[in-house]
Amino acid sequence: MKAVTVSDRDAGVTGLSLTELPYPVVSENDVVVRVHAAGFTRGELDWPDTWTERSGRDRTPSVPGHELSGVVVELGFGTTRFTVGQRVFGLTDWARNGSLAEYAAVETRHLAPLPFDIDHTVAAALPISGLTAWQGLFEHGRLAAGQTVLIHGAAGGVGSVAVQLAREVGARVIGTGRAADRDLALGLGTHTFLDLDNEKLEDAGEVDLVFDVIGGEILERSIALVRAGGTLVTIAEPPKTQPSDGRALYFLVEPDSALLVDLAARVRAGRLKPVVGNVVPLAGAPAAFAPEKRSSGKTIVRVTEG
């Protein structure tokens, strides 16, 4: 099968290439998915699990990408949740070969059924962005109606979903990003937008929750914006300081098939619209990792047509 692989830690995105790999081995409680569309996170080449198995053993060449939508083509021993020919979407395991391939072996607990009326390209934009946004806002951030949330990267894959979910529960939403992101962020439902290149972050004032996807200086400056009893959650890096009367925490997204079902229902009902950015073929995936290729929304790799 064709797959995007990486073998050299030091090469960065230049080490990504389209190669031939054997068809995946299906394990107990796995399915093999014929991948129709896939998503990736640009920073995943820095993740330890990209390079090693859970035991610590080297697993290169490895296949990046951990979001997929496709069709089940094979069942592992003991698999009962899905059937051959069923449409599914979800996450691949962090420490196994990922989704930038024609076929992927996936644990069934990481997948959810995909309704027939959701396109694979849209579904592949949902797993990491949707789960991260929900878990950050509600499980870690405890966002409630009437509160104010500051969402960094409001036009990005995670941020755009977070804006919509926060608006739906009745929160006031302040979004940040680049000047070019303003119209999209406002269209998604932000009440206020701050261009971080030309406007002061501190103009946001105090908020109940900061949702950070950027890290670095922006993360540190955001600590001061958390009002008494408030929270900052970040997926970028562990915070170096804490609010004077609040909390700041770093979290990693957790697979949740039941939540994926809920998110898909929101998409079907028109209550949630994942923002799909660039769509590239599998052969174009290595170039799409480059920072200069970043666009609003989620970049999706179209692996299989149909």
UniProtKB/TrEMBL annotation:
It holds the Pfam family ADH_zinc_N. SUPFAM superfamilies: GroES-like, NAD(P)-binding Rossmann-fold domains. It comes from the Bacteria. The keyword Oxidoreductase applies. Coiled coil: none annotated. Residues 12-301 form the Enoyl reductase (ER) domain. Keywords: Oxidoreductase. This is NADP-dependent oxidoreductase. The lineage of its organism: Bacteria, Bacillati, Actinomycetota, Actinomycetes, Mycobacteriales.
